Amino acid sequence: MTTESTPAVALRMTGITKSFPGVMALQDVDLEINEGEVHAIVGENGAGKSTLMKILAGFYQPDKGEIEVGGRKAIHWTPREARSRGIGMIYQELNLVPDLSVAENISLGAMPTRGPFVDYRAMNAKADAVLRELDTDIDPGTRLGDLSISQQQLVEIAKVVARQPNVVVFDEPTSSLGDKETRVLFDVITKMRDRGIAIIYISHRLQEVMEIGDRVTVLRDGRHIETRDVAGITPDEMVSLMVGRDLNEMFPKFDLGLGEQVLAIEGASRAGQFDNVTLDVRKHEIVGLAGLVGSGRTEVARALFGLDPLEEGTITLAGKVLKIRSPRQAVAAGIALVPEDRKGQGIIPGLSVRENFTLPVITRITNALLIFLGKERKIVTELADRLKVNPPQVERPLNVFSGGNQQKVVLGKWLLSEPKLLILDEPTRGVDVGAKADIHHIIGEFAQDGGGVLMISSELPELLAVCDRIFVLHEGVIAAEISRADATEESVMRAATGQEVAA
User: Fold this and answer.
1) Is the pLDDT of residue 477 over 60?
2) Taking Cα atoms as reference points, which of 183, 123, 137, 133 lies closest to residue 158?
């Protein structure tokens, strides 16, 4: 029996090196994860976190190095072999089938059968059991596409938990979850750890690392920098190891004189989603929209962009009253939306960076028959440099870039359309601290140039530091409007939980 002083090693990766054309992604990286521990991995975009985990999952083969799972060396390491050896992966982006039921998604690839037929009773019972373990009331028979993103994230976790893994990688698992769901997740992770499962926890939310982690490994530029006990490190020290910058630089505030009104929403309503919402945004202003999951924040953004049009109320943009019934009308009017579901709604992963950048402005670089590639490349290269897309290789497929770089491309494509109003739904969700700082500077520059910004974020420190004003939604109703001077985490949360109502 292994004692606490000498824990058994569940996973050992030694001397892992991996290169791609023109890029050294990993160089001689060592990683050791013990049974029954939560081991966090942190690092900037391009630090090598995703590449290392894809090697662990069998999707990439290392150029050199060794993998041991449970003391046994991996010889022919493939995704199938990784799963059979108990490696479970929960990715930042959902890997589910919207048109299948929750139960079918949980059992995908491992359907219980009775003879030649799928045993739906056993499948539903299995799904019900694991969902109850996660303390969620999601119905196993529900079509997955009918669930919210936060509920779909819980189904993703249930799918992996159902396979009883030995090592589980959580890649930004709370990126779509509210406080309640995050607490449930942490309870589940704690139970898994107590059963001896090794947990790898990747997050850019350093306070989560401090709360749930036992040890933390810092990667930078494809190299292992340091592994330390979480009890012996602070968030500031982690940032210093990752990027050499102070945490205060992550949330820069641009003090700008406010201009004329860009957006005014009056009495906006949509049945079952939000009611009588009234707010405004001015030139040079960043306005926050806060609230708990399900409060109606995303629904308001979707209505402004014409995805789910208003049923009541008015939208005025730059002094002109609009009836926005589609995204095409919104874009033509000067409204841009960076959605919370980056992979599903913000990008076309298989296209190149160049092609994604120019999607909204394709008519500017074409005539009736031809795309002017020289003009397109010049525009895109300059934009990629300005936004610090890394690596600056605009012909590479966007799906090989990190989440932070993908988000920069989503922002960039809308900046090319020169909007009057930029709506941002969780603009820094799932990106590292370096990319977060870059994105905040991009947003600040847009406001500085005269744009108006409506920003949704579940990270209160981000809203408090970046925004000039914050509107707080509670159950679809504006509960408070709070100035930058008066905004605190406590005042926003009181309004978000219904303890304080706007006069």
Assistant:
1) yes
2) 133
The domains located in the chain, with CATH, are: 9-245 (3.40.50.300), 246-334+420-503 (3.40.50.300), 346-418 (no CATH)
Rounded Cα–Cα distance for residues 161 and 188 (Å): 9
- Are the CB atoms for 38 and 201 separated by under 8 Å? yes
Higher-pLDDT residue of 240, 265: 265
Whether the Cβ atoms of residue 473 and residue 291 lie closer than 8 Å to each other: yes
Q: Where are the alpha helices (DSSP H) in 39-148?
A: 49-56, 79-84, 102-106, 120-133
Q: Looking at this protein, which amino acid is placed at residue 321?
A: V
Residue 249 to residue 365: CA distance in whole angstroms: 37
Q: Is 360 helix (H, G, I), strand (E, B) or coil?
A: helix
Cβ atoms of 26 and 18 within 8 Å: the answer is yes
Query: Residue 169: what are its φ and ψ, rounded to 5°?
Result: -100, 120
pLDDT in the model for residue 447: 93
Tens digits of residue pLDDT in 60-90: 999 999 999 999 998 889 999 999 999 999 9
Cis omega before residue 327 (within 30°)? Answer: no
75: which 2 tokens?
Answer: 């010889």
Q: Per residue in 255-269, pLDDT tens?
A: 667 789 999 999 999
